[in-house]
Amino acid sequence: MEWGMQNRLNRLIQKDGKALFLPIDHGYFQGPTHCLEKPAETIKPIVQYADALMLTRGVLRNCIDPTIEKPYVMRVSGAVSVVGEDLANESRVTSIEEIIRLNASAVSMSVFVGSKYENKSLTNLSELVDECEKYGVPVMAVCAVGKELEKREARYLALAARIAAEIGARVVKTYYCKEHFEKIIDGCPVPVVIAGGPKTETQREVFDFVYDGMQKGAVGVNLGRNIWQTPYPVASIRAIRAIIHEGFTTKEAEDFYNQIIAGKT
């Protein structure tokens, strides 16, 4: 692998081969998302526990201190909103010059396999990969299903992940599914990180799917709402980090989480 590409990937995926990405890019289609109205304040107590941030250029420029040493993945697809006709009708919104100028370690783009705009989103991905490969910038494909929750099953997710990898994504972000998640991993030749999706009912649910996904071969997670929308974001991200980088079980993570809340660690 070319040196620049490998160097950027090494900033994101740590020496143990694992990663914890903290996304704060939700405003690109949701607007001022709950608990993310002021991104700088949201991440201040938790960013130290993340391996990388995921965000848009606008939030980067206006909310992030340029002295930060944390690498980041820049969201470069968008131009849609929750009040629009179809979230799948995304376009690319950031140039390669801007990506390099702002020193992104990687970029991300959603792909909507099975949607009305499947061809458009996959063509967008292909063109982005072509440009980014010239400059050694990894592309993370985000396998998006929007409100179509029934598509969050292994057969569909494995299809989308494999297609994204075939087009040239260096990393794939996809949803977790309880049944046959390992089929997604086995069929995808590039590292897979787990998306958080909507906030869960309990913290234990998060620990359960993170642990199971890691056991089945994911290299890490890309969790936002299930960290910064929780009552105890610091305890949440530290416990999730322990599962990813220290091999904690679900029970151990839950105990650690409760100890942090109680001020015992």
Note down, in words, how this protein is organized.
With 265 residues, the chain is an alpha/beta fold. The chain has a single domain (3-229), classed as TIM Barrel. The protein contains twelve helices and ten strands. The protein has helices at residues 3-12, 27-30, 39-43, 57-63, 96-101, 118-134, 154-167, 181-186, 203-215, 225-228, 233-246, 250-261; strands at residues 19-23, 52-55, 72-75, 77-78, 91-92, 106-111, 139-143, 171-175, 192-195, 220-222. The strands form two sheets. Strands 1-2-3-6-7-8-9-10 form an eight-stranded parallel beta barrel, surrounded by six helices. The protein has a two-stranded antiparallel sheet with strand order 4-5. The longest helix is centred in the middle third of the chain and has 17 residues, at 118-134. The radius of gyration is 17 Å and the shape is globular. The mean pLDDT is 95.
Could you outline the blueprint of secondary structure elements for this entry?
Elements: H1 3-12, E1 19-23, H2 27-30, H3 39-43, E2 52-55, H4 57-63, E3 72-75, E4 77-78, E5 91-92, H5 96-101, E6 106-111, H6 118-134, E7 139-143, H7 154-167, E8 171-175, H8 181-186, E9 192-195, H9 203-215, E10 220-222, H10 225-228, H11 233-246, H12 250-261
Parallel strand pairs: 1-2, 1-10, 2-3, 3-6, 6-7, 7-8, 8-9, 9-10
Antiparallel strand pairs: 4-5
